[in-house]
Design brief:
There is one protein chain. The strands form 9 sheets. The chain has an 8-stranded mixed β-sheet, with no helix packed on it. The protein is mainly β and 593 residues long. The N terminus and C terminus are likely disordered. The chain contains 4 helices and 42 strands.
Length: 593
């Protein structure tokens, strides 16, 4: 039995006493594990249902939409190569469980609870309250046919089911599932529709990593809550409250309350030994920069090792970066923490992201048992023996496709994403032109061939073929974007900074992009990923193999507000034998390794 460390709970109000909740009062919830191989059924059914759940014991219950009655949803565990069929059954009743309001960005509305409709410039976001339960599930990171991928337009209403088949022909890795309905993903995920999905294999088993009660998902989100207009007390009602730039875009959602596994500021009682945490940022848009800190808020990150990323195990344990581990929306990390040196002490997981604003930085507390604990686990020098670093001409074949993408701000200041086609001719003039003085060779000229989801598809890749995606963030400022590519796990080849010449008014570069300098990748960025951060003024190149499924897929920014508002584009993976008969305008293959 764990010896509980008695210490006074810390009260941390956000900005006013009547919004204060007692920090670290409630225990961390651990979502139930579903292991389908023991069920003996060909198809399992996971219902989508309404659940009333307290996000903190000092709050009234919140109305949520959930997978199988849990927020977050159950952690689904499967073996590599074992096919799983799931019927996602939409059984959601009742009104949409969000109150959605907007306020002027200059008034910092996202920093406070309450809809505040009596304040100047605040208003209800029309239409959100009328939304039906229109949902579709995407298993993020899965290699599966497009019909199982959760195509955004293929959402279904109450009373319908989405039948999916996951082959799971992938190494051990942490995937996650969430809603992906066209234009309303940000709202549906916010209601609670997210959960983790773990693939296991023999290589992982051989490491004898902490498991059972010593392996715990940590799913981090942020939320806002409404208040009672008479008393100012928090009501538990989910509040989607966002800032708006005058005559400009709506800013993506962030909230003043951070949750771990659906609990605001929980605590976890741990033994003085190694633990394994499966970390996921499931927030709409918030980036977290995480540190493990002691009672004096001093980092103790030497006790932490990263052993895996989105796409599986790293070749060797990696230390946390000096400033902490930055986790963008949709990124996952496989984290080991050694609590053996902290017997009888309290540690915290703390957010140091500079975009934090007025939000409380503490996420959760670890209360370490005071007694010594025998721990058979020893941190190995090597983790994955199957890992191979991609290198041009050897592990990455010379013959591969090239895809070019631009991230930018349009004339209204709204983030936008372009498919690019390389031209053989000089700059034709006009809008939609990106020129780049490639440090490895010639001047390159690209033309925009698609920028909304319903524009003509411009990217076609042969099944089982390698493709290098070159992502250029040409905006002069603006947000970083976590870019997610469906169907593949990829490795970052390089990250380069450059001097941008993109002009928002003319929607093109005024001179070739130049001044390229390499930015060192973090050690963990060499691991397999499916989501990568692209900062303004950077060129990020990633390489992945597009096998395991065919059809039409998506790539997009995983800031859900950006995805819903246009930063999502389709691409097609088809058999090479079919490709020669497939006539399509523009874009297409670029076999110029």
């Amino acid at each position: 039995m764990t010896e509980i460390i008695e210490r006074p709970a810390t009260t941390g109000p956000i900005t006013a006493p009547n919004w204060g909740l007692t920090k670290f009062l409630d225990p961390l919830r651990v979502p139930p594990a579903l292991r389908p191989h023991s069920w003996g059924h060909d198809v399992i059914t996971i219902p989508l249902v309404v659940k009333h759940q307290r996000l903190h014991s000092q709050l009234p219950p919140s109305t949520l939409w959930t997978y199988a009655g849990h927020f977050p949803g159950p952690t689904i565990e499967v073996r590599t190569g074992k096919q799983l069929r799931i019927s996602w059954s939409n059984e959601i009743d009742g009104e949409f469980p969000l109150v959605a309001v907007q306020g002027p960005v200059t008034d910092a509305p996202a920093s406070r609870p309450g809809r505040e409709l009596d304040r100047p410039g605040y208003s209800v976001i029309e239409g959100v309250a009328d939304l039906p339960s229109w949902t579709v599930v995407h298993l993020h990171g899965a290699r599966t046919n497009a019909g199982n991928d959760g195509w955004a337009h293929n959402a279904g209403l109450k009373g319908t089911s989405q039948l999916t088949e996951y082959q799971n022909v992938q190494p051990a890795m942490p995937l996650w599932y969430h809603d992906h309905a066209m234009a309303i993903t940000r709202f549906n995920v916010h209601t609670g529709l997210a959960g983790m999905y773990l693939i296991r294999d023999d290589e992982e088993d051989a490491l004898d990593l902490p498991h059972g009660d010593h392996e715990i998902p940590l799913i981090i989100t942020d939320r806002n809550l409404d208040t009672d207009p008479a008393t100012g007390a928090l009501t538990g009602q989910l509040l989607f409250k966002v800032p708006v730039v005058p005559n400009g875009p709506m800013i993506p959602f962030t909230g003043p309350f951070n949750l771990v596994n659906g609990v605001i500021w929980p605590h976890l009682d741990v033994e003085a030994r190694w633990y394994r945490f499966r970390l996921l940022n499931a927030a709409n848009s918030r980036f977290y920069t995480l540190n493990l800190v002691d009672e004096d808020n001093q980092p103790v990150n030497d006790a932490v090792r990263l052993i895996g990323t989105d796409g599986g195990l790293l070749p060797a344990p990696a230390a946390l970066p000096a400033a902490g581990l930055t986790v963008a929306p949709a990124e996952r990390f496989d984290v080991l923490i050694d609590f053996s040196s902290f017997k009888g002490r309290g540690l915290k997981l703390r957010n140091a992201d500079p975009r934090l604003g007025t939000v409380e930085p503490d996420l959760m507390e670890f209360r370490v048992d005071a007694r010594a604990k025998h721990d058979p686990f020893r941190l190995p020098e090597k983790i994955s023996t199957s890992y191979t670093r991609l290198v041009h001409g050897s592990t990455l074949p010379e013959d591969h496709d090239h895809v070019w993408v631009a991230l930018l701000l349009n004339t209204e200041g709204h983030p936008e994403m372009w498919d690019l086609e390389e031209l053989d001719t000089p700059d034709p003039g006009g809008e939609g032109i990106i020129q780049l003085q490639d440090p490895a060779g010639p001047l390159r000229t690209f033309r925009m061939i698609g920028k909304t989801f319903d524009d003509t598809t411009g990217i076609f890749i042969d099944h089982d073929r390698w493709a290098v995606w070159n992502i250029l963030h040409v905006a002069n400022g603006g947000p970083a974007h976590p870019i997610h590519i469906h169907l593949t796990e990829f490795q970052a080849l390089f990250r380069r900074a450059f001097t941008t010449t993109f002009d928002q008014a003319s929607a093109r570069t005024t001179a070739p992009l130049t001044g390229f300098t390499d930015v060192a990748l973090e050690k963990y960025e060499e691991g397999w990923k499916d989501t990568i951060i692209v900062n303004p003024g950077q060129w990020v190149s990633v390489a992945g193999r597009f096998g395991g499924g065919t059809g039409e897929f998506m790539y997009h920014c995983h800031i859900l507000d950006h995805e819903d508002e246009g930063m999502m584009r389709p691409f097609v993976v088809h058999p090479p034998e079919v490709a020669k008969f497939d006539v399509h305008p523009g874009g297409g293959h670029h076999h110029d390794g």
